[in-house]
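Design review, sub-item: ligand-bound model
Attendees: FS, YL, KQ
YL presented the inputs for the flavin mononucleotide complex:
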Amino acid sequence: MLHLDPKDMSVRDAHLLLLGGVAPRPIALVSTVSDDGVVNLSPFSFFNAFGANPPTVAFSPSTRGRDGTRKDTYYNLTATKECVIQAVTYDIVQQISLASTEYPPEVDEFVKSGLTPEASEMVKPPRVKESPFQMECILKEMVSLGEGPGSGNLAICQVVKFHVAEDLFVGGVIDPDHIDLVGRNSANWYTRASGSAMFEVPKPVDRQGIGFDGLPEHIRKSTILTGNNLAQLANSEEIPAAEAIGESIGQLQAARLHETTIEAFHRSERLGDIETMLRIVLARDDMDADERERLSHRTARSALDQGDVWLGWCALLSIRRD
Ligand SMILES: Cc1cc2nc3c(=O)[nH]c(=O)nc-3n(C[C@H](O)[C@H](O)[C@H](O)COP(=O)(O)O)c2cc1C
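KQ shared the predicted structure:
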């Protein structure tokens, strides 16, 4: 590990660390209007939501690292106290990148980026028609987070009106595949938060899980199971009873097994066929005990990686240990 004290680092290096380690970040596409009516549109990824009562979001139009000057968004927001923040979706990511170009204050980035302004209801800055999630906001507070180049300015904003495309909703919540958001990583990297980039983690059980310290020692000290695998098991309310495991094992053993070689085990592992893996382990009671235990842990790891916690338990608890 590197151990770095920000006091000994350049602002640029600290900035690069934050960009890489605090990622992917949601992106606020912020529209503002200057006192004399010039519209501005810029993306900001130092952004998040911080409360629902009242709905509160914040982003940071930082002081430029290059020369310590402030951005048009900062000036417009402090002058007028109004903005619209819209979500950035994959469909408009190239256009918002274009809008981030440092055009002079008199230039309207809607025109430059080809995005369409649409009148807001509660504030002056226009909404971006192409974004399916828009928040009309008023500035509650602009907090200065430092002095000089690269310092942050936290714009804390209260949402006074949401506009959300109806077709985003599935079962009453915004569906990630439908909204297809993008996040910002370091350098020129972005993340598309939909499709195969997403995965589900089941919520911890209502009653408390047994925890790592509640796992049998031969499981907790496994050199094969990962921290994620152990956490999946530790999320169980109790260690399954021997009878229930025995019943599942009995059903598995009832099916015909053609081959019980180690090669067949490896083939099944490559194919992700966890049931056959376990049936081979169960059939091979002639095997060296340590080797058989290793195979049972590999079976459990494959099962847990596929989200099958029950089969994981079966693999781990079905081998008699003396
Ligand atoms: C995806 C993306 C995220 C950005 N995030 C930030 C940010 O969090 N803070 C910031 O000051 N600038 C950020 N920038 C740069 C600003 O968008 C850029 O400086 C812009 O020109 C500022 O415009 P303005 O002067 O019209 O306000 C980001 C740029 C991109 C493309």
